[in-house]
Amino acid sequence: MARESFAARAEAVQRVASATSGSDPIVQKAAFEALGRPTQGTTDWLWLMLVGGLVSVLIVAVVGLLVWAGRTGAQTDKLVTVISAVLAGLLGLFVTSPPQSGAHG
Length: 105
What we know:
Blueprint: H1 6-19, H2 25-35, H3 40-69, H4 77-92, H5 98-101
Helix pairs in contact: 1-2, 3-4
C-alpha cells in the first residue's frame, strides 16, 4: 500500500469539502468518513505540532511575565491570563474525556 502524502490528503479533503459544501450535514459526514481516518504518522505529527505550539506560547508568556514583572507599576494581568489559558488547554489534552472514562453526569 502506497503512503499518502500530506499534500495529497489535504487535496482530497478540500475536494470533498467543496463537493459537499451545500449538501445536508449527514451527506457531508458520510463523505468525510469515506475518506478514511488519517494515518498514525499524521496524527502523531499533528499532536507534536499542537503540543509544541502550546508549550512555546507558555514558555514565551512565562519569560515575558518574569521580565515584565520586574518593572515598576507593570500590569501583568494579561500575561497571567495567557499563561493560565494555555496551561489549562495543554493539561486538557492529557485528561481522559468523561465518555471515555465512563463517568456519567
